[in-house]
Amino acid sequence: MATQTGIEWTEQTWNPITGCTKVSPGCKHCYAETMAKRLQAMGANGYENGFAVSLHPERLGQPLQRSKPTTYFVNSMSDLFHEEVPFSFIDSVMSVIERCPQHIFQILTKRAERMAEYGATRDIPKNAWMGVSVEDKKYGLPRIDVLRTVPAATRFLSVEPLLEDLGTFDLDGIHWVIVGGESGAKARPMKAEWALNVKDQCLAAGVPFFFKQWGNWGADGVRRSKKKNGRELSGRNWDMIPTVQLR
Predict the structure, then answer these.
(1) Are 142 and 111 in contact (CB under 8 A)?
(2) What is the average pLDDT value for the chain, to the nearest integer?
């Protein structure tokens, strides 16, 4: 079933696909892989294959059962545009999204080129927010240019885990930016100036900025629990989100 989530920028997760493979440095300490292996060991339904890419058509109808407007993170445990997911199955996911105009569906990928290939021949539902991960300059920044070509009403960036200073980059055609540090036993630190650089560019461009977390390294460079490090950047929480009209 779709589940409640502790992810600060969404309300529920919907996983009609599980499993993935690593494609860039942001994947190194993948939380979903760790969780999938744990769920497999527990005998959880849907994780019999561990973190191998698996389609779950029986889960497609879950958002249709909820009338209350809800924000869904699609495939928190996978990547909708993974090479092993056929476009025909993505069509089925998009069909459900189109049939649920009361909901927002946030779709995040590290496979921007395949997202763009899909969008080149299909209409993207207005309530499908399309996003890419941007963890560094080499792998992350090029995804932004590809995302701009996707015909989505709302395009967003998940700058998490932020692994280096991104320098100056173009936010034209981008409607939302999320920033966060890495959490977990092997988390890599995020420097305050890296996050502030992204924030300042968002504010200058009029793009809503959301600071998700410091993770396991604080603004002072000290390692401690994610909860103790909190979510403040420049002395406040940044919870800006796009304002959209779904209907």
Answers:
(1) no
(2) 95
Q: Do 32 and 75 touch, CB atoms closer than 8 A?
A: no
Give burial (CB, 10 Å; 0-12/13-18/19+) of 191: middle
Indicate the pLDDT class of residue 6, thresholds 50, 70 and 90.
confident
Maximum Cα–Cα distance across the chain: 49
- Rounded Cα distance between 228 and 195, Å, is 18
CA distance 196 to 166: 11
The token pair that represents 109 in the structure block: 């990928």
- The pLDDT tens digits of the residues spanning 171-187 come to 999 999 999 999 999 99
DSSP 140-175: THHHHHHHTTS--SEEEEEE-S--S---S---TT--
Coil/strand/helix, residue 228: helix
Smallest CA-to-CA distance from 133 within 60, 73, 43, 66 is with: 73
CB 46 within 8 A of CB 75: no
Was domain 3-229 assigned CATH 3.80.30? yes
3 phi, psi to nearest 5 deg: -130, 155
